[in-house]
UniProtKB/TrEMBL annotation, chain A:
Family according to the record: Belongs to the GerABKC lipoprotein family.
Signal peptide coordinates: 1-21
InterPro entries: GerAC_N (IPR057336), Spore_GerAC-like (IPR008844), Spore_GerAC-like_C (IPR046953), Spore_GerAC_C_sf (IPR038501)
Name of the protein this chain belongs to: Ger(X)C family spore germination protein
Keyword annotations of the record: Germination, Lipoprotein, Membrane, Palmitate, Signal
Superkingdom per UniProt: Bacteria
Span of domain Spore germination GerAC-like C-terminal: 218-362
Compartment(s) of residence: Membrane
Keyword Lipoprotein: yes
Domain (Spore germination protein N-terminal): residue spans on this chain: 23-193
Bilayer disposition of the protein: Lipid-anchor
Species of origin: Sporosarcina quadrami
One Pfam match: Spore_GerAC
Gene3D superfamilies tied to this protein: Nutrient germinant receptor protein C, domain 3 (3.30.300.210)
Lineage, broadest ranks: Bacteria, Bacillati, Bacillota, Bacilli, Bacillales
C-alpha cells in the first residue's frame, strides 16, 4: 500500500513540474544563425540572431518565417544575455548551424568572441563559420526566393545535401578553431555575399586567416583550386587555351599529394603531385580522340600555371593550407622546429607536377 | 533383424516378452492400457494407449465381435479380414504406431495391429491469438484428451511422457505435464513438479491462471512461462526440451522455461526462407523498440533536448504544437490512454461491433483531437505508430507487458529527459537480466542454429 501511495504522489508531482530543464518545444525559439558585426557606436560587437519561427502547417505556408533580433554590447555573451530580456521564449542554441562574422572582424583578430562559441556547451561544434560581406546583419536578413517553408537556405550551401560546388568552402566551428589557432595551418572560411536586390546569397570566395597574420581574400579561381586540391571537391571546369583552340575541361576526380623535401634538417622545397581525371566538356573546334595526349599536355600546362599562382599568393601572405602542420607532424619534435619552418616557408620553392588524364573528348563519335 | 525374430509368434515364451517390453517402453506415457479379454476358455490380450484410441470403435469392432464369435480362431480370422489392419514391421515402428492410436492384439500367439485412432478435429479451434500465414491453422481444443491426441499426432515419439495429475483446488481439474523424456531438462521438470505440488490457490480455471501462480513472483511484469495455442509451437518447444503444462478445459498450454526471445518468435519464421525470416525478425524487434521507447523519446526530445532532431523537423513539431495547452507528457499520456482504451474496447466488443469502435476511435476522434488542438499532428503519428508496433509482437502476453513498460519509460523521460530514457531503458534491461524462469536466466541468448535447437538441449 505504501508503495502505491508513493507512486501516486510521484506521478502527481509531475503535473506541477515546471523545472528549469522541462521546457516544451513551443516555449523555445530556435536560433538558426548568429551574426557578429563590429559595434556601430561604441567598442564591442553587434550581435544579430536569426530565429526560425515554427510553421503551423508546412503545406499551407507560403515561405519561411524568420525573426531578427539585434543587440550591441561589449562582448557577445552580454548581448545574448540582454537579448533574453527581449524575447518571451527560451533561446535555444542547440540548432545554431551558422556563425556569420563580418569580414572586417577577421582583420582585428576574432579569438576573443570565437572563444565564446566553442565554450558554450549548447552550441554545436558542427556549426558553420562564415564570413559576411558587407555585414553579417545584412546577410542574415536575406531571405532568398528559393527558400521553402521550414528550411534555412543559408545552410544548404555548406552541407552537401543541397548544392555542391567546388567554389564553396565549408568550415565547421571545430575545424575553424583548430586551423585558426593551430601552427602550420590556417583557416579557410567561405565569404557570403549578396546581390543588389538583396534576394540572393552568393558563396564563391574564401578568406584565409590565421593567428598572427593578416587575412587575405581568395578570388573565385583560387577558392576553386583550394577546394579541389585540399577538399577533393569534384565537378570543376578549367579553361584551356592554345593558339586559337579553346576548350573546357570537366574534371570529376582530383587527387593531390605532396611531400616536403628536406636537406640538412632544413626544408628545401615542397613537391606536389596532382592528378586530374575528367573529360572535355566544351570546345570551339572539333577534337580528335587520337589526340587526347596532346590535350592532356595542354591542360597540364594550363593547370600548373594556375596552381603555381594559388600557392604563390598564400606563400606571400604567410598563410599555409597545411604544409607546416604536415612538416611538424612528420618530424621529430625539437626546439625551434617550427621556427625553422616559418623562416623557410616564405620563399620555399614549390615544385608542381600535374597529370591530367582525359577519358574522352566528351563527344560521341 | 533382431526385432523381427522377437516378433516370431511360434515361440511360446516370447509372447509375454514383447508385451512386457512394449509396456516398459510405454511406461512414461502414463495412460497405456494392457487388458485381457476372455470368454470361457477363449482369450485375447489388448495393448493400447487410451488417449489416442477411439473407445467406441474399440467396443464395436473388437470387443463385441470377440464375445459374439466366442472363438479365438474365428476372432483371429475376423481380425485378419478387417480393413484397418496394419502390417507389423518391427518393434520400433510398432511403438510409434501405438502412440499414434493403434491397438495391438494378441490372439492365439499371434499379433495383430488394428488402427482405431481417435480423430477429434471437429472440436479443434482455429488459432485466434497467434495467426500465421503458413503452417497449421488449427489450434488446440478445450479437452485435455484431444489436446494430448493432437500432440501425439504431431510428435510421434515414444519418449513423449505424459504425467497426469489432478489439481487440489476446488475445480479438481485434470492437469497434464508433457515432455520428451530424452531431451527434457530435469532440473526444470523437478521445479515444475515442485511448484505444482506447492499450489494452494482455491480456484484455478485456466492455464493463464495457473501460469501466474506457477510464477511465484508477486509483482511480475514479464511472463516467465510461454502461453500458446499453436500445436506447432508446442511441438517445436517439446522437441527442444521444454516442459508443457496442460489443463483440461483450456485451449492454451503453457511452457516452461521461457526466455525473453521466445516471445519474439513467430512460427511463421520457420516457414519462410532465410532472408525473409531474418527481415521479419528484424522488423519485429524494431517494432518492440519503437513501441517501448517512442512515447518517451517524444517527450524527451520535445521538452528537453530539441537539438537532437533536424531543424526542419524541430520547426514542424513546434508548429504542430501551437495551441496545445498542456505540456508534452500530459499530451502523450492522454493519447496513450486513449489508444489503450481503444485496444481494450476492441478486445471486449463482439466482433461485429468492434469495427465501429476502431473507426469512431481511430479516425474520427483522432482527427477531432488535432482539430481541437488537444494534441499535435506529430503526436497522433507517434501514438498510431506505437499502437501498430505493439501488435507486431507475436505473443500477446508480451505485448501486454510491453504496453506497461512504456509508461514507466515515459515517467523517466518526463522527469529526466533524454538521459532519463537511457537510464529507464537500462533499468528495464537490468530487470530482465535479473529475472529467472524456472531457474533459467531470462535474458540469456541461447545461440543455436535451427537444427541444433530442434535436437533439444541435452540430446547428444
Amino acid at each position: 500500500m505504501r508503495v502505491f501511495t508513493l507512486a501516486i504522489i510521484l506521478l502527481l508531482s509531475t503535473v506541477i513540474q515546471s523545472g528549469c530543464a522541462f521546457k516544451d518545444i513551443d516555449k523555445r525559439i530556435l536560433i538558426v544563425a548568429i551574426g557578429i558585426d563590429p559595434a556601430e557606436n561604441s567598442e564591442g560587437y553587434k550581435v544579430t540572431l536569426k530565429i526560425a519561427l515554427p510553421v503551423a502547417s508546412v503545406k499551407q505556408a507560403s515561405g519561411p518565417r524568420f525573426a531578427y533580433f539585434t543587440e550591441e554590447s561589449e562582448t557577445v555573451g552580454e548581448s545574448l544575455r540582454i537579448l533574453e530580456t527581449h524575447i518571451d521564449k527560451v533561446l535555444e542554441f542547440g540548432h545554431v548551424k551558422a556563425i556569420v562574422i563580418n569580414e572586417e572582424l577577421f582583420k582585428d583578430g576574432i579569438e576573443d568572441f570565437m572563444d565564446y562559441f566553442t565554450r558554450r556547451a549548447d552550441i554545436q561544434l558542427i556549426a558553420y563559420v562564415i564570413a559576411a560581406r558587407p555585414s553579417a546583419e545584412e546577410i542574415l536578413k536575406i531571405e532568398p526566393d528559393t527558400e521553402a517553408a521550414s528550411t534555412v537556405s543559408l545552410l544548404n550551401f555548406f552541407d552537401d545535401t543541397g548544392t555542391e560546388s567546388p567554389y564553396i568552402t565549408t568550415s565547421f566551428l571545430f575545424q575553424f578553431r583548430r586551423d585558426y589557432l593551430g601552427k602550420g595551418i590556417d583557416s579557410f572560411v567561405p565569404i557570403i555575399e549578396t546581390n543588389e536586390e538583396k534576394n540572393e546569397l552568393i558563396v564563391n570566395k574564401a578568406i584565409v586567416s590565421g593567428e598572427g597574420s593578416d587575412p587575405i581574400v581568395l578570388d573565385q579561381i583560387k577558392t576553386k583550386y583550394y577546394n579541389s586540391l585540399f577538399k577533393s571537391k569534384a565537378g570543376m571546369d578549367y579553361k584551356v587555351e592554345d593558339d586559337n583552340l579553346t576548350f573546357m575541361l570537366y574534371i570529376d576526380k582530383v587527387k593531390m599529394s605532396y611531400k616536403i623535401i628536406e636537406e640538412d634538417k632544413k626544408p628545401t622545397s615542397i613537391k606536389i603531385n596532382a592528378k586530374f581525371v575528367g573529360i572535355i566538356g566544351q570546345s570551339n573546334h572539333a577534337l580528335s580522340q587520337d589526340k587526347l595526349n596532346h590535350y592532356n599536355e595542354l591542360s597540364e600546362k594550363a593547370i600548373k600555371e594556375k596552381m603555381t599562382d594559388f600557392f604563390k599568393t598564400l606563400q606571400e601572405a604567410g598563410l599555409d593550407p597545411g604544409f607546416g602542420l604536415r612538416y611538424r607532424a612528420t618530424r621529430l619534435n625539437s626546439d625551434g622546429l617550427y621556427e625553422k619552418w616559418e623562416e623557410a616557408y616564405k620563399d620555399l620553392p614549390i615544385d608542381i607536377n600535374v597529370t591530367v588524364k582525359l577519358k574522352s573528348t566528351g563527344a560521341l563519335e | 533383424m533382431k526385432g523381427m525374430s522377437s516378433l516370431n509368434p511360434q515361440s511360446d515364451n516370447q509372447i509375454p516378452h514383447l508385451f512386457a517390453r512394449l509396456l516398459n517402453k510405454l511406461q512414461v506415457a502414463g495412460d497405456t492400457i494392457h487388458t485381457p479379454i476372455e470368454i470361457d476358455e477363449e482369450n485375447a490380450q489388448l495393448l493400447f494407449i487410451k488417449s489416442v484410441i477411439d473407445g467406441n470403435q474399440l467396443q464395436n469392432t473388437i470387443i463385441k465381435p470377440f464375445f459374439e464369435l466366442a472363438s479365438e480362431k474365428r476372432f483371429l480370422q475376423y481380425l485378419d479380414s478387417l480393413p484397418n489392419k496394419i502390417e507389423i514391421v518391427d518393434e520400433e515402428t510398432l511403438l510409434v504406431e501405438l502412440t499414434r492410436g493403434m491397438l495391438l492384439i494378441n490372439v492365439q500367439q499371434r499379433y495383430v495391429l488394428i488402427d482405431i485412432k481417435k480423430v477429434n478435429t471437429d472440436s479443434v479451434q482455429i488459432t485466434s491469438l497467434e495467426p500465421t500465414i503458413y503452417g497449421p491453422q488449427g489450434g488446440l481444443s478445450e479437452s485435455l484428451e484431444t489436446n494430448i491426441n493432437l500432440l501425439r499426432q504431431r510428435y510421434a515419439e515414444p519418449s513423449l511422457a505424459v504425467e497426469i495429475t489432478t489439481l487440489t483446488d476446488r475445480s479438481k481439474s485434470v492437469l497434464a505435464i508433457l515432455y520428451d523424456k530424452e531431451v527434457v531438462d530435469t532440473e526444470v521438470l523437478d521445479t515444475v513438479r515442485k511448484r505444482l505440488g506447492q499450489l494452494n490457490n482455491p480456484l484455478i480455471q485456466s492455464t493463464a491462471d495457473l501460469e501466474l501462480y506457477l510464477n511465484q513472483e508477486k509483482f511480475a511484469l514479464f511472463p516467465s512461462t510461454l502461453l500458446t495455442e499453436r500445436p506447432d509451437r508446442i511441438v517445436y518447444n517439446l522437441a527442444g526440451g521444454k516442459v508443457i503444462i496442460m489443463l483440461d478445459g483450456s485451449p492454451q498450454v503453457t511452457m516452461a522455461p521461457a526466455v525473453f526471445f521466445d516471445f519474439m518468435v513467430s512460427m511463421d519464421d520457420h516457414y519462410h526462407n532465410f532472408w525473409t525470416s531474418i527481415s521479419t525478425t528484424f522488423l519485429r524487434y524494431a517494432g518492440l523498440f519503437t513501441c517501448t521507447v517512442l512515447p518517451a523519446l517524444y517527450v524527451a526530445i520535445i521538452s528537453y533536448n530539441p537539438d537532437v532532431i533536424r531543424t526542419e523537423l524541430a520547426l514542424t513539431v513546434a508548429g504542430s504544437r501551437i495551441g496545445v495547452p498542456y505540456p508534452s507528457y500530459i499530451e502523450v499520456i492522454f493519447m496513450l490512454v486513449f489508444i489503450e482504451l481503444l485496444t481494450e474496447a476492441s478486445i471486449r466488443l463482439p466482433k461485429a461491433v468492434s469495427a465501429t469502435a476502431t473507426t469512431v476511435g481511430g479516425l474520427i476522434l483522432g482527427t477531432a483531437v488535432v482539430e481541437a488542438a488537444l494534441a499535435s499532428n506529430i503526436m497522433i503519428i507517434v501514438v498510431s505508430l506505437v499502437a501498430i508496433s505493439t501488435f507486431v509482437i507475436p505473443i500477446n502476453e508480451m505485448s501486454f507487458s510491453v504496453r506497461a513498460t512504456r509508461f514507466f519509460l515515459l515517467l523517466y523521460a518526463t522527469l529526466f529527459g533524454l538521459a532519463g530514457v537511457i537510464i529507464g531503458f537500462v533499468g528495464i534491461i537490468m530487470y530482465l537480466a535479473n529475472k529467472e524462469s524456472f531457474g533459467k536466466p531470462y535474458l540469456k541468448f541461447y545461440w543455436k542454429n535451427r537444427s541444433e535447437e530442434i535436437k533439444g538441449g541435452l540430446k547428444k
